[in-house]
Write a structure and sequence with these properties.
- This protein is α/β, with parallel strands linked by helices.
- The chain has eleven helices and nine strands.
- Helix 5 crosses helix 11.
- The relative contact order is 0.16.
Length: 321
């Protein structure tokens, strides 16, 4: 996938489809821009006029709670007009093609599409088809990418740990079906993490996963040694086409994060999860709600990071963040 599609002629963000192909400077600019928005939640008036007069359509072809809600809040806080499409009751359920849906919305003078779709590459396809003034933000496509989730996680890691260069990060769970994991790995490597370690049973790892720039471990207790950041992933049973595990209880026994296993990592290690959490499957409630968990902080940071990405993508239209 060409990174050029994501950037305008001046090298500024136009679409945000994947972390792949974006450099450290641009990712750092996203994090720095998000930093300028982070205090807005404490203000009495939680709005800035950066996108006043702009129209943003949320096109979610898959169910979502956190991602869709934080995108809506982010757009509202930038003073944009926001429309969230109910795909189940839209014309696509009557046979209208994705491209026809986009063309009809374009005719309503839309400025940005935020897209979640079950097919990998859907956001990229839309970005290739839309009018030149329209930006497309990928809110998750198939098993391919979830770049805004990766960036809000990078923001949370930087907030808690500072510089990436000394950090060892473990991503644990269903790597095979996770679009989040792929985007996390790309972002961590681009930002210069000391090590990205994936921990999972062999059945939940992609073939040749080492080529993504990770070290691999199949034993949770061994894999947690010397780890600064733990990112837990849920089992994506809706994407599994065959029985890849003996049972959820067996999975929790071997790969579930408990208080005792957490003690193997560094004493100040933080625990993250992109959600939704399956308590008692990949993580124990005492860990999810414990002092080392930053899971709710991730959710809060999602608003500021998505505000930053939207504002930066609109720079090409004369809107400055």
């Amino acid at each position: 996938m060409s990174a050029n599609l994501q950037l305008n002629s001046e090298g500024k963000l136009k679409h945000f489809l994947t972390i792949e192909g974006l450099d450290k400077n641009l990712l750092t600019e996203i994090l720095d821009t998000a930093e300028s928005f982070i205090g807005m939640s404490d203000q009495q008036v939680k709005k800035v006029p950066l996108l006043r007069g702009k129209s943003i359509v949320n096109l979610f072809f898959e169910n979502s709670t956190r991602t869709r809600t934080t995108f809506e809040l982010a757009a509202n806080r930038l003073s944009a007009d926001v429309l969230s499409m109910s795909i189940a009751t839209s014309s696509t359920s009557k046979g209208e093609s994705l491209l026809d849906t986009i063309r009809n919305l374009e005719a309503m003078y839309v400025d940005m599409f935020v897209v979640r779709h079950g097919i990998s590459g859907a956001a990229h396809f839309i970005a290739q088809q839309v009018a030149p003034h329209i930006s497309v933000i990928n809110a998750g496509d198939g098993q391919h990418a979830h770049p805004t989730q990766a960036m809000l996680d990078m923001f949370t890691i930087r907030q808690m740990k500072g510089d990436f260069s000394h950090l060892r990060v473990a991503i644990i769970g269903d790597i095979l079906h996770s679009r989040v994991a792929r985007s996390e790995i790309q972002a961590l490597n681009t930002l210069g993490a000391a090590e990205v370690r994936v921990i999972a049973p062999k059945t939940l790892l992609p073939a040749h996963v080492e080529k993504l720039g990770v070290s691999v471990c199949h034993d949770l207790q061994r894999g947690l040694q010397d780890i600064d950041v733990i990112i837990m992933l849920r089992l994506q049973k809706e994407r599994m086409t065959s029985a890849l595990l003996p049972s959820e209880s067996e999975y929790f026994k071997c790969f579930g994060l408990t208080e005792s296993k957490l003690k193997i990592a560094k004493p100040d290690a933080i625990v993250m999860h992109p959600g939704p959490i399956n308590r008692g499957v990949e993580i124990d409630s005492k860990v999810a709600d414990g002092p080392q968990s930053v899971i709710l902080k991730q959710v809060s940071n999602g608003i500021a990071v998505r505000m930053a990405i939207m504002a930066m993508a609109m720079q090409k239209q004369g809107v400055s963040a």
